[in-house]
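Hey, quick one: can you model this chain's 3D structure?
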Amino acid sequence: MAMDAPATIKDVQKLTGCMAALNRFLSRLGERGLPFFKLLKRQDKFEWTTEAAEALENLKQHLQSPPILTAPLPGEELLLYIAATTHVVNTAIVVERPEEGHAYGVQRPVYFISKVLSESKVRYPSIQKLLYGILITSRKLRHYFDEYKISVITDFPLGDILRNWDATGRISKWAVELGALEINFKPRTAIKSQALVDFLVEWRENQIPAPQSIPEYWVMYFDGSLKIDGGDAGVLFISPKGEQLKYVFQILFKVSNNEAEYEALLHRL
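Sure thing. Here's the predicted structure for all 269 residues.
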């Protein structure tokens, strides 16, 4: 496939724009294009990297034999597969039908979704990334969720987590939104489509870990709590090398929670 390597940031933007248009037709496109998105962050100086060159060649090969999508028929059950890596969440909507010459049903892809995670979402735990995959799919393909029976194929207890009344934070918010939809959860068995081989592993720990921010200066955390006859306060210092220094002291006069925290701050200053 004739496709020259990008020579400028604008060329990379054109490439990623074309990939976005093909997102629904190709599996894990966000992960395949991750090296290109890294180049877009370097606005000051453009340099075509070896990683990007390899990604472009792999993309060319994948485009030469793309999977054929199938339109679902009324009343069919749609299967949702999820794949989550460190930086990307991918989902695939699939339909399973009996076909001549096959003893069992054959799975055909209907729609692919690939989402490159922002810096904050990269730090989501693996379970939350899988739940986030269901959430973004339900938002983008709401017409499928309204008209068809959707079954999430997973070996993770995602259904139990969403139905947990003790859930807090973003999971509780997602549970409210997804609770309005009819979603079933089924254990994963054999995947009956070559196009879905990429979804055999839902979470891969061998991905590149999220970069840890190393502070250039000392970092200080402080907190305080009140008691009947005074209060307690504590301070934690973390050096640029990761060394921790802890200090705890008692306040011998009556204070509120906020005042105890202020005392902790002032004491160390």
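One thing worth noting: Residues 126-140 form the longest helix (15 residues).
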